[in-house]
UniProtKB/TrEMBL annotation:
It is found in: Cytoplasm. GO terms for molecular function: pyrroline-5-carboxylate reductase activity. It catalyses: L-proline + NAD(+) = (S)-1-pyrroline-5-carboxylate + NADH + 2 H(+); L-proline + NADP(+) = (S)-1-pyrroline-5-carboxylate + NADPH + 2 H(+). It comes from Streptomyces rimosus subsp. rimosus (strain ATCC 10970 / DSM 40260 / JCM 4667 / NRRL 2234). Catalyzes the reduction of 1-pyrroline-5-carboxylate (PCA) to L-proline. This is Pyrroline-5-carboxylate reductase. Pfam families: F420_oxidored, P5CR_dimer. One of its GO terms (cellular component) is cytoplasm. The lineage of its organism: Bacteria, Bacillati, Actinomycetota, Actinomycetes, Kitasatosporales. PANTHER family: PYRROLINE-5-CARBOXYLATE REDUCTASE, PYRROLINE-5-CARBOXYLATE REDUCTASE 3. Residues 160-264 form the Pyrroline-5-carboxylate reductase dimerisation domain.
Length: 269
């Protein structure tokens, strides 16, 4: 019998995953969604042909529940779900920060829980989804979670102790690149380029650099050295990046993201 999957709290990440599952061949009839607002539920039904249900209905009838509400809303959702969850449901959390133990304490004994940190490039099937097992999740549960998240990009298993770091790197990571593109587009304006041209130049440079990082097999240092001609332009820019402490700023920024993920552990941060 086909597995049924429900996405509970279908906002940005929930919808990105849902759309990817459908692109990846899941039948909309095997997918359920829950949303707080009825207009949102209707929108998802119209867009994807999926069935909106209540959280309790999802708990009763889906084999896998994927919880994509904000960490601050997770406690309330679990209180709502707990009375309706049969023992064999796989519960996948997509929330930042919250440990699997938080779910295990609030759900029926021995509920298998898998924690996943994905990212918004799920929308274009280029997600990085980092996956960890809770106490009662078996290899089969991890494989099931991987099968779902593999429809939207790459997956990687890590020990749960590495999830807060993964959240800082790949979960939030796309935002850092958007920030850099925004800043470099501003630089293009300063240098006299029209905004649309500056945007296109820097986006294509980013796509080219990302593709080489993924496909060339070269270390990032080698790739950067290959751009940096003696007494050329690039080294002048690199000196300014070092003078302004960009490397240290990035290390501090990711440490702050990791620390915030840890703070969210209580689920009500
Ligand atoms: N936005 C991102 O880049 C990433 C977000 N995440 C995680 O994904 C989760 C969701 O984030 P977003 O999608 O950005 O937030 P969002 O606010 O777009 O989506 C959350 C949705 O849950 C709904 N919701 C809340 N309580 C509900 C309930 N009891 N029943 C039904 N629906 C309910 C809200 O109405 C909202 O539509 C968070 O836990 C976040 O940590 C993980 C990776 C990346
Ligand atoms: O900012 C956040 O909390 C979420 C988790 C990772 C990316 N976005």
């Amino acid at each position: 019998m086909t597995q049924k999957v429900a996405v509970l709290g279908t906002g940005k990440i929930g919808e990105a995953l849902l759309s990817g599952m459908i692109r990846g061949g899941w039948a909309p009839t095997d997918l359920m969604v829950t949303a707080r607002r009825p207009e949102r539920a209707d929108q998802l039904r119209t867009r994807y042909g999926v069935t909106p249900v209540t959280n309790a209905e999802a708990a009763k009838s889906a084999d896998t529940l994927i919880l994509t509400v904000k960490p601050q809303d997770m406690g309330a959702l679990l209180t709502e779900l707990a009375p309706h969850i049969p023992a064999d449901r796989l519960v996948i959390s997509g929330a930042a920060g919250i440990p699997t133990a938080f779910f295990e304490e609030r759900l029926p004994a021995a509920t298998p829980v898998v924690r996943v940190m994905t990212n918004t490039p799920a929308l274009v099937d280029e997600a990085m989804s980092v996956i960890s097992a809770g106490t009662h999740a078996t290899a089969a549960h991890l494989t099931r979670a991987e099968g779902i998240f593999a429809t939207v990009g790459k997956t990687l298993r890590v020990p749960e102790s590495q999830q807060d770091a993964a959240t800082a790197l790949s979960g939030s990571g796309p935002a850092y690149f958007y920030f850099l593109v925004e800043a470099m587009t501003d630089a293009g304006i300063l240098l006299g380029l029209p905004r649309d041209k500056a945007h296109d130049l820097i986006v294509q440079a980013a796509i080219g650099a990302a593709t080489m990082l993924r496909d060339s097999g070269e270390h990032p240092v080698t790739l950067r050295e290959n751009v940096t001609s003696p007494a050329g332009t690039t080294i002048n820019a690199i000196r300014e990046l070092e003078n302004h402490g960009v490397r240290a700023a990035l290390i501090a920024a990711l440490e702050a993201a990791r620390d915030r993920s840890r703070e969210l552990a209580g689920g009500n941060g």
